[in-house]
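Q: Structure tokens for this one, please.
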Amino acid sequence: IWISSRSEDRARILAHELGGGVLPWESWQQAVESAVVVVSALAGGELPWVKRVTSAGPELLVDLGVPRTLTEVRRAYPNAKWVDLEELAQKSEIHQEALGSIHRAEEVLRTHEILFAMGKQRETEATTVM
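A: Here is the predicted structure, written as tokens:
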């Protein structure tokens, strides 16, 4: 799991919590080309997509941003499956465990939004930026 954020501190904290690595914000567009799954949890604002598509790109785009933040990436990779939380929650075939995971993901995102909106940061071990 690679975490990218406009705030490197925010990315480092979330990456540490999820056991992932940090991807510099300036590199997220290049990383999309080699990713299989891309998840956006950006709070507002469309992710700017100016990269010219040179690969098949991701197979799955999961947009947790409100409003949606991956619409330009979706246009660049029309063959990728598109999913957002509202769609997942409405599917009747989702198992209770999966719904629990969806709600946990929402909780993690809200917690991090609140921490940074209030200007607080939790102490964490240093994470190597890769």
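A few notes: DSSP finds five helices and five strands in the chain. Residues 36 and 58 are 4 Å apart (CA to CA).
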